[in-house]
Design goal:
7-stranded mixed beta sheet; Spore Coat Polysaccharide Biosynthesis Protein SpsA, Chain A; alpha/beta; 2 domains; disordered C terminus
């Protein structure tokens, strides 16, 4: 099988084993360029890097810096030194990505340079429960927050067009959250995300994985969790004010009482929510006035929809105001996150001029 040698395979490696050597030999034999990033594995692992084929480029971090940093180190080096390639395929060092699947993703990349290619596992057969549940949760959280459904958000087998590398170097994240941030970035900017089916491989119960379920999941979900907490705090204020204002205006016609209460509560809670989201969730450094205009335009739409749904549930259907309010907020949560993250707040972008990579031995 003839392989296009204008595809570079990038492998971040932390404390690897024999599987890395085998994979690199296979890739070189098939005509791929290969770059491996030794992410501070330690002196005792030098054997595995020294045994790689001489055609492999090896970059080294002095200390373990995380998968995201290793990927950016490799991408920056490739962008500077291989300007004629079509793109990069990233793969893991632990043997979970088979040669035939790397080839499949590279072929797809050759024909589609307008977006990211994902090698998506089908999670069939003997799959660790934490991996199956983790991917299912991440898939639906990602869909709810971006409006884009991706079957395997956590796959490390990805095809990246060369032209997209400079943008990927500016995306935040040093550890496992980086790969999720890349997908969020692509979804927000309406970049194509294509999926290619690959084999699901978990060796020895996935015990070689360096993914720490609680800590690294918190990093992956950090922004969504912060948005959720911000929304809950704002909802608590909104809910309390709505009940208070409803009691204070009880002498009015029910529909007018509800309108006054809903507008007053949402107006105060929206100002509170805007400050939280700008400073803590999206950490925007942009001028607050344009963002405030867009935010309160969104808030106006949400208030209108909020009142309409509340009116149906509380006045027309006779549900208690508390239950009506909770149901309404749940319906509007995902839409609010998508609009704010895409159109209201501009997130901090890191400079791509100095990524802090240390280029080590080049074989």
């Amino acid at each position: 099988m003839e392989i296009n040698n204008r595809i570079m395979v990038l492998i971040p490696a932390y404390m690897p084993g024999e599987r890395l050597i085998k994979l690199c030999r296979q890739l070189v034999g098939m005509g791929f360029g290969v770059t491996v990033v030794n992410d501070g594995s330690g002196l005792e692992y030098n054997y595995y890097f020294n045994m790689l084929p001489t055609e492999v480029v090896v970059l080294s971090h002095a200390r373990n810096s995380g998968k995201g940093r290793a990927l950016k180190t490799g991408l920056q080096y490739i962008h500077r030194n291989f300007p004629s390639i079509l793109g990069v395929v990233t793969a893991d060092a632990d043997g979970q990505h088979l040669l035939q699947d790397i080839i499949k993703v590279s072929k797809e990349l050759e024909h589609h340079e307008d977006g990211i290619i994902l090698g998506c596992r089908q999670f069939e057969g003997e799959v660790p429960l934490r991996s199956k549940l983790g991917n299912l949760l991440t898939r639906w959280v990602f869909a709810a927050s971006t409006g884009t459904m991706v079957h395997d958000t956590q796959t490390g087998l990805r095809g990246i067009p060369f032209r997209m590398i400079p943008d990927l170097l500016t995306i935040q994240g040093e550890k496992y959250e980086y790969e999720m941030n890349v997908l969020i970035w692509a979804a927000k900017r309406k970049k194509k995300i294509r999926e290619v089916d690959i084999m699901t491989v978990y060796l020895e119960g996935n015990k070689t994985s360096h993914f720490r379920a609680i800590r690294d999941s918190m990093l992956i979900y950090a922004k969504i969790l912060k948005f959720t907490l911000s929304s809950l705090a704002s909802f608590a204020l909104d809910f309390t004010l709505l009940i208070l204002f409803k009691a204070l205006t009880s002498s009015l016609v029910p529909s007018l009482s509800l309108l006054v209460s809903a507008l007053g509560a949402r107006g105060i809670s929206s100002a509170f929510n805007f400050i939280l989201n700008k400073r803590l969730v999206f950490q925007s450094k942009e001028n607050g006035a344009p963002e405030a205009r867009k935010y309160f335009m969104l808030a106006g739409v949400i208030i209108t929809v909020n009142y309409g749904v509340l009116n149906i549930l509380n006045i027309m259907l006779g549900l208690p105001i508390g239950i009506s309010k909770i149901a309404t907020e749940l319906l509007l949560y995902a839409a609010s996150y998508r609009v704010q993250s895409r159109h209201v707040f501009k997130e901090k972008v890191r400079s791509r001029t100095k990524m802090g990579a240390v280029a080590g031995r080049i074989k």
